[in-house]
Design goal:
Layout (H helix, E strand, L loop, with lengths): L1 E6 L2 E6 L5 H8 L18 E8 L3 E8 L7 E6 L7 E3 L1 E3 L6 E3 L16 H15 L7
Antiparallel strand pairs: 1-2, 3-4, 4-5, 5-6, 7-8
């Protein structure tokens, strides 16, 4: 069975096998992540699927933005019970309304349409809001 996953403008084809249809479908479910069409930091569709080993023991699969001004990445996680099942990492939205993909930019790159990383924009909005609130006298 072939499973296509779209990452940016590229399509990756995975082949899964099983003794029968049930086994093949169960194997395909290990690719439980959904298609990712654009970078969550800069909006580019120039994305690639990548994997690496850190410290000779930690295995990582990532989606990387190839925009040289961005270079953000989105990590995959794997289940503890079955490390062959992968999913995209999520985080809580800044406004508390749910979850979003956990895109991260390298610390030395601060890029989006305004030249500031989205996390910094969110923090600046929180700081601005806090500065506008009247100060309560301490007792």
């Amino acid at each position: 069975m072939k499973v296509d996953k779209k990452i940016g403008k590229r399509t990756y084809e995975f082949t899964v096998q099983g003794e029968n249809l049930f086994d093949a479908v169960m194997e395909s479910k290990k690719l439980s992540f959904y298609d990712v069409h654009k970078c969550g930091c800069c909006g580019s569709d120039d994305l690639s699927l990548d994997a690496h080993v850190a410290q000779n023991k930690f295995k990582y699969v990532t989606i990387k933005c190839n925009n040289r001004d961005c270079r953000a990445s989105l990590n995959f996680g794997s289940q503890t019970e079955n490390p062959d099942i992968f999913y995209l990492k999520l985080r809580d939205k800044a406004d508390g309304t749910g979850k979003e993909q956990d895109w991260r930019q390298p610390e030395n790159i601060q890029s989006n349409t305004s030249g500031v990383a989205p996390q910094q924009v969110a923090q600046q909005q929180v700081n601005n809001y806090a500065a506008q609130q009247p100060q309560q006298p301490r007792q």
